[in-house]
């Protein structure tokens, strides 16, 4: 008769040995009965320690941070497995070569059944859930180690026993819970970004550094999320960190996209060119000029739509746009500090190893920095073209040179521009970004200046003698940006002013020379088909003294008989829009 499992746990190992000597003689029978005995004994022992663990839990209910039942049970099962290995398995091994392996496999199945029910009921990451899963993971490693050591000399290397121990998947369960925790945090961060950026007014006086309060807050939330993550009592911070950083990176990229949203681009603000006409000197400000305004009505309507589709128009004033630029630059520079902090947090985490620091890319934000650079560039361009073609529209596009340089000189535009540059310089906090924005404003000014000269409508006209005035005005624009050496470098100014310098020189060239150059370049461009009749060259917008359309426009606004006769004979261009 087999010793009962309950009695087995109460009598010394040597008595169990004597019992077996008396009752078991055949090896195969001995192995089978011993296997049954071990499994039955351990199931009974497991039930007993489970009751004990539940009692311990109830007894410690009023104590701070009591351990959950399955965490207590995992500890007790581990102690039982160790005792089994040391006291009973060496004796029972006489009748069963894998006595310890069978014992731990039985305990593994018993605990695994309880753990499976527990995992199926987990819906969120809690301290109790993490404690249980970590305890289960440790227990499984200990049980597997005992089974492996016990089966070193077996024929199959212990594979049969290991197959009886389906993994608890405790680490995977922890990983899923942490990923759920991360998703909840990231979803809340994205909702926060949407809610707060809808309310953001981009006030330049919101803080001393000139960036938006939402940037300070989003960086604070990011820091809190990292702290909370590394404070989670989990064994796999390095493994899950890349997922968290990618999620935060996407949220910050989303923030960056929202910051630049609705701010327009170069094409939003640049005016539509009027139809090609000859200049007229009969009137200066009335009649013809009013007809010219038709294309620009579209510009005002388009700008209005840009402002009202997102938020109030004030949020797109130049100072507010500068705050957006400051905000993105702040975010970009702070990421470097955050990445260093992540390394420190990882180094201090309990589960970090030297190998976790080998792949630096896993600790870096890869989406946000380039998104910030792209957004800053777009905002600089948008701010520049808004300033020049919208804010300074009256002194540039509407009035400069209307009725001739003597009637509408450049000084009002230069005064307005200088005042605007002072606001920009005071509003943008970072030196390199400020330089980039001012360079974009300069480029917009050069383009606006050329548009006035080459596409300003019939109310603008110039003589060869005006070429000198235009050249001096162009130099005045460059001097304003150079600012006696305190502004942009002359290298930068010369880099972007080449096409303007080239075209301005044509305005001081006599009409006959311009006509001959126009004929030659048109013939070269269109070949033999242009010999009988010169075709009207297409507008490319690439203004140059070697572009036929540029030369044609100079002739259109040339106020002399030679230009008028050539245009009348060749193209019969109208004098009115």
What does this structure look like?
The protein is an all-alpha fold. It has 3 domains: about 5-170; about 265-510, no CATH class; about 510-570, no CATH class. About 70% of the residues lie in helices and about 0% in strands. The chain is built from 23 helices and no strands. It has helices at about 5-10, 15-25, 25-60, 70-90, 100-120, 125-150, 160-165, 170-200, 215-230, 235-260, 265-270, 290, 295-310, 320-350, 370-390, 395-400, 410-425, 430-455, 465-480, 490-505, 510-525, 550-555, 560-570. The model is unreliable at about 1-10 and about 285-315 (pLDDT under 50).
Quick tags:
single chain, 577 residues, mainly alpha, 3 domains, disordered N terminus
Strand fraction equals: under 5%
Strand element count: 0
Name the poorly predicted regions.
Answer: 1-8, 283-313
Q: How would you sum up the major sheet?
A: none
Domains (count)? 3
Shape: elongated
Could you give the order of the helices and strands? HHHHHHHHHHHHHHHHHHHHHHH
Estimated structural class: mainly alpha
What is the rounded Rg? 41 Å
Q: What is the subunit organization of this protein?
A: single chain
Q: Could you tell me how far the N terminus lies from the C terminus, measured between alpha carbons in angstroms?
A: 117 Å
Helical residue percent band: 55-70%
């Amino acid at each position: 008769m087999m010793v009962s499992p309950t009695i087995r746990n109460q009598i010394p190992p040597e008595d169990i040995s004597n019992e077996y000597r008396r009752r078991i003689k055949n090896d195969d029978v001995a192995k089978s009965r011993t296997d049954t005995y071990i499994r039955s004994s351990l199931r009974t022992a497991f039930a007993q320690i489970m009751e004990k663990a539940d009692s311990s839990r109830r007894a410690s209910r009023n104590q701070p941070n009591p351990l959950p039942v399955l965490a207590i049970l995992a500890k007790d099962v581990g102690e039982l497995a160790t005792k089994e290995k040391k006291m009973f398995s060496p004796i029972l091994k006489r009748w069963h070569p894998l006595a310890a392996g069978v014992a731990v496999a039985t305990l593994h199945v018993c605990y695994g059944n309880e753990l499976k029910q527990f995992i199926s009921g987990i819906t969120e990451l809690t301290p109790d859930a993490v404690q249980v899963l970590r305890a289960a993971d440790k227990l499984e490693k200990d049980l597997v180690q005992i089974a492996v050591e016990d089966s070193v000399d077996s024929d199959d290397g212990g594979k049969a026993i290991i197959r009886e121990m389906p993994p608890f998947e405790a680490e995977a369960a922890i990983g899923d819970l942490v990923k759920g925790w991360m998703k909840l945090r990231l979803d809340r961060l994205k909702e926060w970004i949407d809610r707060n950026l809808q309310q953001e007014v981009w006030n330049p006086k919101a803080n001393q550094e000139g960036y938006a309060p939402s940037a300070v807050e989003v960086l604070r939330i990011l820091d809190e999320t990292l702290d909370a993550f590394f404070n989670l009592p989990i064994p796999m911070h390095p493994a899950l960190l890349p997922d968290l950083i990618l999620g935060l990176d996407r949220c910050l990229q989303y923030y960056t996209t929202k910051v630049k949203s609705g701010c327009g681009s170069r094409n939003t603000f640049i005016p539509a060119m009027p139809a090609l006409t000859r200049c007229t000197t009969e009137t200066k400000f009335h009649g013809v000029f009013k007809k010219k305004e038709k294309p620009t009505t579209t510009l005002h309507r388009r700008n209005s739509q840009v402002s009202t589709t997102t938020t109030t128009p004030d949020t797109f004033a130049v100072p507010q746009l500068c705050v957006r630029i400051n905000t993105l630059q702040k975010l970009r520079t702070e990421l470097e500090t955050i990445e260093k902090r992540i390394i420190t947090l990882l180094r201090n985490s309990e589960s970090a190893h030297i190998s976790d620091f080998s792949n630096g890319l896993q600790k870096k934000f890869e989406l946000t920095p380039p998104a910030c650079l792209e957004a800053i560039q777009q905002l600089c361009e948008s701010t520049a073209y808004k300033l020049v073609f919208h804010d300074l529209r009256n002194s540039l596009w509407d009035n400069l040179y209307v009725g001739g340089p003597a009637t509408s000189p450049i000084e009002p535009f230069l005064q307005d521009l200088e005042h605007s540059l002072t606001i920009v310089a005071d509003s943008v906090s970072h030196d390199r970004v400020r330089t980039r924005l001012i360079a974009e404003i300069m480029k917009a000014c050069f383009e606006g200046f050329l548009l006035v000269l080459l596409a300003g409508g019939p109310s603008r006209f110039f003589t060869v003698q005006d070429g000198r005035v235009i050249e001096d005005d162009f130099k005045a624009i460059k001097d304003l940006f150079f600012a006696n050496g305190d502004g942009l470098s002359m290298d930068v100014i010369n880099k972007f002013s080449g096409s303007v310098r080239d075209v301005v020189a044509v305005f001081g060239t006599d009409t006959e020379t311009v006509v001959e150059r126009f004929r030659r370049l048109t013939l070269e461009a269109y070949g033999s088909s242009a010999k009988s009749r010169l075709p009207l060259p297409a507008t490319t917008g690439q203004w140059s003294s070697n572009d036929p359309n540029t030369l044609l426009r100079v002739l259109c606004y040339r106020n002399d008989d030679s230009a008028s006769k050539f245009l009348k004979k060749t193209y019969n261009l109208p004098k009115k829009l």
